[in-house]
């Protein structure tokens, strides 16, 4: 039953996160916040809400391995699996995308995250630094988006947040917000408690469950989005989704969670998992800088690497 509870917790988290995003987006539009600002802030934070709640609850319950494993494992899965599986379905013409600036920002955040991890704990000082860096990056993205708009260029993914309906009635907005705010902590409770129980059952550290079961589960929305983007030949959306998600995982989730309660870093992360996360991120360089398309062969390579990583972690 513990696996059923874990699956139920994950499902509640995903549905509640979606409801919260819809409610927050439409509330913002109704009170006059521009769609551009909504996309860069509310949507980005809202889609990371499940991971944030998991990390906060796990850290507060004395399971920092789940809190940190969720982020590190998700970032590794985002590159190797979330890009690998869609690439096996159809070739993604990433050579036509310009994601160099976002990639450099993601790599800078990754290096900063690893450097802070070697302090042994993510505390309020690390949190303040990560959130400050995130604010600078968001301000940079906002300037770029406004410059594109001023130049008459279309920025579709920023202009129309998913689930936006300026005419949505207030009762419906309130319902979405209520479902999200109630469902997120409920789902986090179920998933974290179940993950801890599974770790005890099979005799592995909670970090292993965080790096595998929890991380894979919370990467499912990114996987679904990327598969659909690949099918629609929107390679820029696919790779941008992964880079943006990784950036928020590193800076926002651990930043906010460690602002609430310190998160200790287990030695295993410093010896292996953080370097796998860094290495998987560097694998994006040929597609970002050197005009290589993400072909089916690359998709197989990335997917095999992820399966190999999970096997090593579990054993």
Provide structural commentary.
With 315 residues, the chain is mainly alpha-helical. The protein has a single domain (37-153, 205-314), classed as Up-down Bundle (A middle domain of Talin 1), CATH 1.20.1420. 79% of the residues lie in helices and 1% in strands. The chain contains 15 helices and two strands. The protein has helices at 2-30, 35-47, 49-60, 64-80, 84-89, 100-117, 124-150, 156-159, 170-202, 206-218, 220-231, 235-260, 267-282, 285-289, 296-314, and strands spanning 121-122, 263-264. A two-stranded antiparallel sheet has the order 1-2. Helix 1 packs antiparallel against helix 9 (170-202) and helix 3 (49-60) runs parallel beside helix 12 (235-260). The protein is globular, with a radius of gyration of 19 Å. 49% of the residues are buried.
Brief synopsis:
The chain has one domain (37-153, 205-314): A middle domain of Talin 1 (Up-down Bundle), CATH 1.20.1420. 79% of the residues lie in helices and 1% in strands.
According to CATH, what is the topology? A middle domain of Talin 1
CATH class group:
Mainly Alpha
Structural class: mainly alpha
Q: What percent strand?
A: under 5%
The unreliable regions are: 154-159
Sheet with most strands: 2 strands, antiparallel
The domain tally reads: 1
Give the N-to-C terminal Cα separation: 24 Å
**Large-scale geometry:** globular
Secondary structure tally: strands: 2
> What is the tally of helical segments?
15
Radius of gyration: 19 Å
Quaternary structure: single chain
Strand order of the largest sheet: 1-2
Q: What is the average per-residue confidence, as pLDDT, rounded to a whole number?
A: 83
């Amino acid at each position: 039953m513990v696996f059923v509870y874990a699956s139920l917790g994950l499902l509640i988290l995903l549905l509640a996160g979606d409801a919260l995003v819809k409610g927050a987006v439409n509330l913002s539009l109704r009170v006059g916040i521009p769609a551009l600002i909504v996309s860069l802030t509310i949507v980005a934070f809202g889609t990371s809400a499940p991971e944030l709640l998991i990390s906060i609850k796990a850290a507060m319950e004395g399971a920092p391995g789940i809190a940190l494993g969720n982020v590190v494992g998700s970032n590794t899965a985002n590159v190797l699996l979330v890009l690998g599986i869609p690439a096996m379905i159809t070739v993604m013409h990433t050579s036509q995308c310009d994601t160099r600036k976002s990639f450099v920002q993601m790599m800078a955040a990754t290096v900063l995250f690893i450097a802070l991890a070697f302090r042994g704990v993510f505390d309020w000082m690390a949190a303040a630094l990560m959130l400050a860096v995130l604010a600078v990056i968001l301000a940079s993205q906002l300037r770029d988006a406004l410059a594109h708009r001023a130049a008459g260029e279309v920025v579709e993914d920023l202009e129309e947040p998913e689930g936006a309906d300026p005419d949505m009635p207030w009762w419906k907005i309130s319902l979405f917000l209520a479902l999200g705010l109630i469902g997120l902590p409920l789902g986090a409770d179920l998933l974290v408690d179940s993950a801890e129980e599974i770790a005890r059952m099979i005799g592995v550290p909670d970090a292993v469950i965080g790096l595998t079961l929890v991380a894979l589960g919370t990467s499912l929305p990114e996987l679904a989005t990327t598969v659909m983007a690949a099918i629609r030949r929107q390679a820029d959306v696919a790779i941008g989704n992964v880079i943006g998600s990784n950036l928020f995982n590193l800076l926002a989730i651990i930043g906010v969670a460690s602002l609430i309660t310190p998160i200790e870093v287990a030695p295993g992360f410093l010896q292996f998992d953080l370097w796998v996360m860094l290495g998987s991120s560097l694998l994006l360089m040929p597609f970002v800088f050197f005009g290589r398309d993400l072909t089916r062969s690359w998709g197989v390579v990335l997917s095999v690497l992820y399966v190999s990583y999970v096997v090593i972690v579990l054993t």
